[in-house]
């Protein structure tokens, strides 16, 4: 089977290219556009963002002449632009999903409700959808995958995102018949459950990133949803609510991820977790019951067993997304998808004492953070998924700092796509 690079090169030689539609021209989207302009057989033909200058700058920074960038929200003008090998800048995300020339849509918005809308519209328009939006995936991904499967298109997470990088290690080890004990990632910064945009403002300005996005990393929500995504893809689960968050170096991992009664730190096997001290890497802890395999692993300097670590010290975020685009287009396969349905649930927890009538302001905000539970535990508590917190959710009773926010403590003041899809998913 040809590698993706050769498939793309051959595609370009036949005067064809994969036509990509992108929603979101923030940091991730901009990097992806530039990376794709360096590749063969692929191009981002249309990009939507409410800040249209972000789209134009992204294209120009990728080396596209301003004369070849067409700004329009009209379908006919967009058709004409693609036929002339020009690219489109638009404020209308629905133009991206409706444009017939687009083969694969990428959601790089990071907003759960918008991501759910984009995925839904893409599938209805028979387009493959790549999600750089793990928050939407862990909330309604199982339903979107079923819908995509029924429509003959691919619903997938992205290579380069940590869940996608972990899944590559999982697939590699699973294909060889190893037992996979645990899957995980390094955390880039100390856990601060009270982080909010005020806390992160200065650092975010220095890094050129969003204060809310940075807060969602610091308060642990991003780590929780990423490992939730891995759990849904593999059938694994957190060993305890919120996972352990061990401290250690790569060499320590095989000894940490052993059951407590055998001298390790785990309550069970097939777990997802995170480790402070190995960022930005991802890992799989593997084992074998075959003496010859263990002897070979020792010979290969993989350690003395019984566990071994596979470690990847990098993930290139949206720069790797084109690999998932190509895999969906050529091979009709996802990089990562919720094959096991909901195995975990990242629930909303109060960051501070909240009063009746307060509105929950969303991921990376001032009111809530996410905490990963096994799905059965979340259901038992009637816990609300953090992906449903969108600024239109009002508390009907007070909630203490550190308490899980339950469905009976909230009311939705404005309808949203992600709430509708979640209700439909919960009925299945």
Notes on the structure:
By secondary structure, the chain is α/β, with parallel strands linked by helices. It folds into three domains: 4-161 and 318-331, Rossmann fold (3-Layer(aba) Sandwich); 162-314, no CATH class; 344-427, Antifreeze-like/N-acetylneuraminic acid synthase C-terminal domain (Type Iii Antifreeze Protein Isoform Hplc 12), CATH 3.90.1210.10. It is built from 16 helices and 18 strands. The protein has helices at 4-13, 27-37, 52-61, 75-83, 93-98, 112-124, 134-151, 162-175, 197-207, 211-218, 221-234, 253-256, 291-299, 321-331, 375-380, 417-427; strands at residues 18-23, 42-48, 69-71, 87-90, 104-107, 128-131, 155-157, 179-187, 237-238, 246-247, 271-276, 282-287, 307-312, 344-350, 359-360, 368-374, 393-395, 410-412. The two termini are 37 Å apart. Pfam families: DRL_cat, NAD_binding_3. GO terms for molecular function: NADP binding; oxidoreductase activity. InterPro entries: Asp/hSer_DH_NAD-bd (IPR005106), DRL_cat (IPR048423), NAD(P)-bd_dom_sf (IPR036291), SAF (IPR013974). Residues 345-411 form the SAF domain.
Amount of beta strand = 15-25%
Q: How many domains is the backbone divided into?
A: 3
**CATH class membership of the largest domain:** Alpha Beta
Number of strands: 18
Short structural summary:
With 428 residues, the protein is an alpha/beta fold.
Overview features:
428 residues, 39% helix, six-stranded mixed sheet, SAF, Rossmann fold, 3 domains, Type Iii Antifreeze Protein Isoform Hplc 12, seven-stranded parallel sheet, alpha/beta, single chain, NADP binding
